[in-house]
Amino acid sequence: MSVLLDVSGLERRFAGARGMGDMIARRPRPVVHALSGVSLQVQDGETLGIVGESGCGKSTLARCMVRLIEPDAGRIVFDGQDVLALDGPARRGFNRAVQMVFQDPYASLNPRKTVHATLAEALRVHRIVPEAGIAARVLELLDLVQLPASAAGRHPHEFSGGQRQRIGIARALSVQPRLIIADEPVSALDVSVQAQIVNLFMDLQRRLGLTLVFITHDLRLVRHMAHRVAVMYLGRVVETGPVAEIFAAPRHPYTQALLRAVPQMTPRELRGEPAVSGELPSPLAPPPGCAFHPRCPVAEARCARELPALERRGGGWPVACLRAGG
Ligand SMILES: Nc1ncnc2c1ncn2[C@@H]1O[C@H](COP(=O)(O)OP(=O)(O)OP(=O)(O)O)[C@@H](O)[C@H]1O
Ligand SMILES: [Mg+2]
């Protein structure tokens, strides 16, 4: 398999909100370290799951990868091209090849436009089919996401959440992308509907040969549908590799803690150990060394000083823990 998207050393900071205390003391705006050197690879044709607690930088990473926002540092290579240097027609080509699906399709669909108008617009902007072929292509897209042809004449508010997500997916598919980045695409949906949308993603991927990045809080979804997984903690990837192997024998203490929080997925050797407690530290002041060390059950003194690189440490896949494979 070849690498389709290669992200390395991605950094992104935001200006944080200033509290009253900051203003009185005339402190400068705090800085949120949303991404602190993220590296990951997406293989052509695979589903990569990205997991991690709220605020660890998953959406910021997704937005950087589709260039909705620019990173402060790092490199993104898509299909051999340096994405951050693209402009003109090459940038438009990239904008077409990489599509994003959002958690709330309602917010990203124009409420005044019919489904036909929304899909037709995407087809026209990128000149996917000649004008005479647009109506037929819209019907094909609806069929692809298992919506009836009658959906074309209706507006977003006439659909359920699951149906709206199908429209969001149809719009992403309309421009024939190679990569879809889906940011929590089912977390706003009822559990029964979640399964249908997840199965739709899996079906589309197989039929169209799509590559998929699937961001979720739900480790069960990752196990169900992803080939590989990247586990994020406070703006970094701490472990990445094949889903089956990592779920059977997680190597980073944070991955172990995440799995322990989902009892039916806990490997036998981890059961009975205390779960990791404590709050996610603030990205305003990430801990020095390994950012997980204040919550880590096996941290040593050096973990508070040394930043562990994400590398193969005697095991089969990269892990950012000084104690792994040691
Ligand atoms: N535009 C912004 N301005 C200021 N801070 C931001 C902005 N976007 C994100 N952040 C901050 O960056 C950090 C990472 O946010 P991000 O939305 O990427 O996390 P996430 O992993 O997607 O979380 P969730 O699981 O809740 O969606 C958070 O502390 C967030 O408050
Ligand atoms: Mg998010």
Describe the structure.
By secondary structure, the chain is an alpha/beta fold. It has one domain: Rossmann fold (3-Layer(aba) Sandwich). The protein contains eleven helices and twelve strands. The strands form three sheets. It has a six-stranded mixed β-sheet, with helices on both faces. Strands 2-1-4-5 form a four-stranded antiparallel β-sheet, covered by helices on one side. Strands 11-12 form a two-stranded antiparallel sheet. β7, α8 and β8 form a beta-alpha-beta unit. α5 packs across α6 and α5 (115-125) packs parallel to α7 (161-174). The structure holds adenosine-5'-triphosphate and magnesium ion.
- Strand fraction equals 15-25%
Number of helices: 11
The CATH homologous superfamily name equals: P-loop containing nucleotide triphosphate hydrolases
Bound molecules: adenosine-5'-triphosphate, magnesium ion
The largest sheet has its strands arranged as 6-7-8-3-9-10
Low-confidence stretches: none
* Residues in helix, %: 25-40%
Total count of strands: 12
Mean pLDDT: 92
Termini separation comes to 30 Å
CATH architectural grouping? 3-Layer(aba) Sandwich
What is the CATH class? Answer: Alpha Beta
Q: What fold name goes in the CATH topology slot?
A: Rossmann fold
Number of separate structural domains: 1
